[in-house]
# Entry
Amino acid sequence: QVQLVESGGGLAQPGGSLGLSCVASGGTFSRLAMGWFRQAPGKKREFVGAVNLSGRNPTYVDSVKGRFTISRDNAKNTMYLQLNNLKPEDTATYYCTAADKFFAVAAGTANYWGQGTQVTVSS
# Structure
């Protein structure tokens, strides 16, 4: 059973930056596609981005392209999300997700989810 633990959320000003981490345990990290979703109060969970086993060419939702960067370190069983040029509309709980198949991560149907970490963007 894979367990995912996010960290690194917090409060940032508009235009600021935050870095999130997702540490995986209980599985073979290098065999897992990984991704990030977010959910704002009163809204549906939204796909943010995903990365395949190699970490090359992550996929992003249009609203975060050029501002957010996903990376992974298979030696550390960790995926990262760097959030730059933050906007108030980025305020949400950010969730890490993992699955054997990339399409399951991107579709939000993965078996494994973290508990979430809060990101608040406000002046």
Observations:
- The chain has one helix and eleven strands.
- The longest strand covers residues 18-25.
- The mean pLDDT is 96.
